[in-house]
From TrEMBL:
Record family assignment: Belongs to the aminoglycoside phosphotransferase family.
Domain Aminoglycoside phosphotransferase: 20-251
Active-site residues from the entry: D186 (proton acceptor)
Annotated TM spans: none
EC number(s) stated in the UniProt entry for this protein: 2.7.1.95
Chain sites annotated for binding Mg(2+): N191, D204
GO molecular function: ATP binding; kanamycin kinase activity; metal ion binding
Keywords recorded for this protein, A-Z: Antibiotic resistance, ATP-binding, Kinase, Magnesium, Metal-binding, Nucleotide-binding, Transferase
Organism of derivation: Bdellovibrio bacteriovorus
Gene Ontology BP terms: response to antibiotic
Protein name, as recorded: Aminoglycoside 3'-phosphotransferase
Length: 261
């Protein structure tokens, strides 16, 4: 792969330095930690089945979000042969799942809640990134049609479900309204970077955009439970501070919707 990188990438990275594969995250892309010619670290994402616009949304999200909140910056992108490439800056620290053994549960919860509050307080009216259900549901159904939904990766509560049942339940439970904010779209611990208890910024922005706040809340609670053994919803809401009560039906719907991704 190194010998087939597009020029936009090769002019920035040191060719003689090893690549370190990054195994966390659920985007489905391959990701490598690389060294830039200026000595700084960066992350190179690659995607097979080359499409000229595969990283278009993530690039747009990074450019827009960095005007309002800390997120990985786009350094270069390009395509060569069967691959698309995206080179982004490395934020200070490591992903939040890597801090679980060093920070207390409540410190982890607090970092998540404060980061989400900062994100959801960004005015969304001028955000060009549309991830509302009118966009997200057709995208989910297209992924199912294309064979991209992984039956083996369902949450425990949906283990053994068929794709047909998943689709029926999706259509049956679509919320009647959306409490819109700017969302990350995949608000899980591996997509938050921190330096100990200090939040550094967001990565993996391929699903970021305007959507219901429960999109982020549902995935965050799942991630907290998976990493900490509990979702700590009460403690989270105290730090988050933007709502006092969760919509349980919406939480379940957005967990269901996430199975398509």
């Amino acid at each position: 792969m190194k010998s087939h990188l597009p020029e936009e990438i090769t002019q920035l990275i040191q060719a003689d330095m090893p690549w370190e594969q990054v195994n966390v995250g659920e985007s489905g892309d391959s990701c490598f930690k690389v060294t830039l010619k200026n000595g700084n670290k960066a992350f190179l994402k690659t995607h097979a089945n080359n499409s000229d616009n595969y990283f278009t949304h993530e690039i747009a999200a990074a450019l827009w979000l960095n005007q309002h909140i800390s997120a990985a910056e786009v350094l270069a992108d390009g395509s060569q042969g069967p691959f698309s490439y995206l080179l982004t800056s490395a934020l200070q620290g490591k992903d939040l799942s890597a801090w679980v053994s060093e920070l207390s549960n409540l410190e982890i919860v607090n970092i998540c809640a404060i980061a989400m509050r900062q994100l959801h307080m960004i005015p969304y009216a001028n955000c060009p990134l549309d991830q509302k259900l009118q966009v997200k549901i057709p995208w989910a159904k297209q992924r199912l049609h294309d064979g991209l939904v992984d039956l083996e990766d369902f949450d425990d509560s949906r283990k053994g479900w068929s794709l047909e049942r998943l689709l029926v339940e999706l259509d049956k439970n679509i919320p009647k309204s959306e409490d819109l904010v700017v969302t990350h779209g995949d608000f899980s611990l591996p997509n938050l970077i921190a330096e100990r208890s200090s939040f550094s910024g967001f990565i993996d922005l391929g699903r970021a955009g305007v959507a219901d706040r429960h999109q982020d809340l549902a995935i965050c609670f799942n991630s907290l439970e998976r990493n900490l053994g509990d979702s700590f919803q009460t403690e989270f809401l105290e730090s988050y501070g933007l709502i006092t009560k969760l919509d349980e039906e919406k939480l379940e719907f957005y967990k269901l919707l996430d199975e398509f991704f």
